[in-house]
Write a structure and sequence with these properties.
Layout (H helix, E strand, L loop, with lengths): L19 E4 L9 H9 L5 H9 L22 E4 L14 E5 L3 E6 L16 H9 L5 E2 L8 E7 L2 H12 L4 E9 L8 E8 L8 E3 L6 E11 L9 E8 L6 H8 L26 E9 L6 E5 L15
Parallel strand pairs: 6-12
Antiparallel strand pairs: 1-2, 3-4, 4-6, 5-6, 7-11, 7-12, 8-9, 8-10, 10-11, 12-13
Helix pairs in contact: 1-2
Organism: Terrabacter terrae
Catalytic activity: a uridine in RNA = a pseudouridine in RNA
Pfam families: PseudoU_synth_2 (PF00849)
């Protein structure tokens, strides 16, 4: 079976999390599916647990039929099963639904919530929690927000809508505005357009700006308001509007740090800090506005976050 022809999971999500798909290799010496699974899942899943799952009918084929221990190994076949979920800290806030129709769901994602299930953030991801909240099992993100960043996140309702809406972001057709709280630097003339070359090396958490390289990241930086003595040291803070023209990893956080105005509460910039998972001092960055022409019917779409940044003491610009 060709890779693109593999059917969707026959198992419904559990706690908003999809079953895992195991695609068999092209060839191998295994006679039975069980033998391959034991070898493949070791050492994380012991052989007795594989046997238990098979006895319980937890591995299924594309039709949803449970597979037994004596099921033959079939090259390139696919089987599905739900894996044990990691222990997670329960996020105190749910995503808030801003909009819902037959094609998309738009939510206001809280700070410190991953977009997709990953690592330590699975059931508590925005995708899993929104699936449970809405009852829509096939939701999928059209784009992503960094885990520390709050704000407007769009998801598609069904597979057939995923491509058109993802292309809005891939082709740079979405207008995005962010709000951030950061120090005020009197010598910094604003507004300005920050154009730099960003690189994020594999295995590192921080992105970095490379001098004398062609720009691949561009952001309009505007200072909307200042609040003298607003931070804990009595220094002046500013409320900034950031309008990215590109979407590189950590673009806003890295570029503001490069300007000498790192975002308040950032655990990575300018210096990476070992911050335990918590929700008391979030990154003061908000995906505030998302606007685009609908790729299906051409309707102008505009979604605005209802959240505000806790470190900002002044008037809030979003109604």
């Amino acid at each position: 079976m060709a890779r693109g022809a593999i059917p969707p999971s026959p198992l419904p999500p559990r706690h908003g999390v999809d079953a895992q798909r195991f695609r068999m290799p092209q060839d191998g010496s295994w006679t039975y599916l069980r033998d391959h699974l034991v070898e493949r899942l070791s050492p994380g899943v012991p052989s007795w647990e594989v046997d238990r799952m098979l006895r319980a009918g937890e591995f299924v084929d594309a039709s949803g039929t449970p597979l037994q221990a004596d099921a033959p190994f079939v090259p390139q076949a696919a089987v599905w099963a739900h894996r044990d979920l990691p222990e997670e800290v329960v996020h105190p806030e749910p995503p808030v639904v801003l909009h819902r129709d037959e094609r998309i769901v738009v939510v206001d994602k809280p700070h410190d919530m991953a977009t997709m299930p990953r690592g330590r953030h699975v059931v508590q991801s925005a995708l899993a929690r929104t699936r449970v909240l809405t009852g829509l099992d096939r939701l999928a993100p059209a784009h992503r927000l960094d885990r520390p960043t709050a704000g407007v996140l769009m998801l598609t309702v069904e597979q057939r809508w995923r491509g058109p809406y993802q292309r809005v972001f891939a082709d740079g057709l979405a207008h995005k505005e962010y709000l951030a709280v950061a120090p005020v630097l009197p010598r910094l003339a604003l507004p300005l357009v920050r154009r730099t070359h960003l690189v994020k090396d594999h295995g590192t958490h921080q992105a970095r700006e490379v001098e004398d390289a062609d720009p691949n990241a561009e952001t309009l930086v505007e200072l909307l308001e200042t609040a003298p003595g607003a931070d804990s040291d009595g220094k002046e803070l500013g409320l900034y509007r950031l309008t990215p023209r590109t979407g590189r990893t950590h673009q806003l956080r890295c570029q503001l740090n490069g300007l000498g105005i790192p975002i308040v509460g950032d655990p990575l910039y300018p210096v990476e800090q070992d911050v335990p998972l918590g929700f008391d001092a979030p990154l003061q960055l908000l995906a505030a506005v998302l606007a685009f022409d609908d790729p299906v019917d051409g309707t102008p779409r505009r979604f605005v976050s209802r959240r505000r940044l806790a470190a900002w003491p002044g008037a809030w610009p979003l109604g």
